[in-house]
Specification:
The chain contains eleven helices and eight strands. By secondary structure, it is an alpha/beta fold. It has two domains: 170 residues, P-loop containing nucleotide triphosphate hydrolases (Rossmann fold), CATH 3.40.50.300; 72 residues, Orthogonal Bundle (Conserved Hypothetical Protein Ylqf, Chain: A, domain 2), CATH 1.10.1580.10. It has a six-stranded mixed β-sheet with strand order 5-4-3-6-8-7, with helices on both faces. Strand 3, helix 2 and strand 4 form a beta-alpha-beta unit. Bound molecules: guanosine-5'-triphosphate (GTP) and magnesium ion. The site of magnesium ion has 4 residues, from helix 6. Magnesium ion binds next to helix 6.
């Protein structure tokens, strides 16, 4: 994070392995029938790669608004309104840490691919459908796939960059999903997008000034739902929260690092409330 004179910060995270992953996805898409684009339901618009249109071509896309258990209502409708795609697509919501509902996902995919399936059948081909699962880091791609198989086939974890290589996972006899490492893009058009992604844990905390980040998070949450912040902490500002939670060093100085870690963790676990951060864009 680079601080400038106005004490505002600039977030950018596009390590070399992400550029390589984007190339790998581009190559894999040639043999794929469709794309599952997993986005974090707390900021689905912020999760969309601005170059998405270029590499998706005309492949059908199933958008999965994952972590819907942590998002405020109305997020799906708002996301659909923001979409401007020429390619066929469908949008579903999902809580991938809860079991059930996987048949409905498969059915939605089959409906989206009905024309493609018919064409294949007409040519006597019953080949397996291959679908690439893509999205920003930590949005729940691997968890979504595991949930679809009811088996822990892919590695998951609550930090960005858990999946390092591609992995094909069989879901049914004729549907395979490709797990891919999370990818961001070289530059954020808008720093609010970058902050939203950092708030939800899609940008490595190690490269962030977590104190500054948690302070802007609080300011943003206070703008969206001040009552949720008040309900959780009893107070609304960073300093008041740090004091109230006993984040103090010797001599009564605020332990801002500890307070920041706590505020970020509680937000990410949904303890402060359900939010739609895209409303900040
Ligand atoms: N509350 C909630 N947590 C979820 C959901 N889906 C995934 N998670 C959690 O989000 C974290 C990240 O999940 P992963 O599946 O590893 O995410 P990923 O997109 O594969 O991440 P990378 O491989 O790093 O790109 C894990 O702690 C999951 O348990 C969901 O629907 N709701
Ligand atoms: Mg993963």
């Amino acid at each position: 994070m680079i601080m400038n004179n106005e004490n505002k910060f600039n977030i950018n995270w596009f390590p070399g392995h992400m550029a390589q992953t984007l190339k790998m996805i581009d190559a894999e898409l040639k043999i794929c029938d469709a794309i599952v684009y997993v986005v974090d339901a707390r900021c689905p618009q912020s999760c969309i790669n601005p170059q998405f249109d270029d590499f998706v071509g005309r492949k059908p896309v199933l958008f999965v608004l994952n972590k819907i258990d942590l998002a405020s209502s109305g997020v799906k409708e708002q996301f659909i309104q923001s979409l401007q795609l020429k390619t066929p697509y469908a949008v579903i919501t999902r809580n991938s840490v809860k079991s059930g509902g996987t048949d409905a996902v498969v059915k939605t995919l089959q409906k989206l691919l009905a024309e493609r399936i018919q064409t294949k059948l007409a040519h006597g081909i019953t080949k397996t459908l291959r679908v690439a699962v893509i999205g920003v880091t930590n949005c729940g791609k691997s968890t979504f796939i595991n949930n679809m198989t009811n088996k822990g086939k892919t590695q998951t974890g609550n930090r960005p960059g858990v999946t390092r290589t591609k992995q094909w996972v069989p879901i049914t006899d004729n549907l395979w999903l490709l797990d891919t490492p999370g990818t961001l893009w070289p530059a954020f058009a808008n720093q609010q997008i970058a902050r939203n992604l950092a708030y939800v844990g899609s940008i490595k905390d190690d490269i962030l000034d977590t104190v500054a980040l948690s302070q802007t998070l609080l300011a943003d949450l206070n703008q969206l739902q001040p009552e949720a912040v008040k309900n959780r902490f009893g107070v609304n500002t960073f300093d008041e929260i740090a004091k109230k939670r006993g984040c103090l060093l010797r001599g009564g100085i605020l332990d801002t690092r500890r307070a920041a870690k706590m505020i970020l963790a509680e937000f990410r676990e949904g303890k402060i409330g359900k939010f739609n951060l895209d409303n900040l864009l």
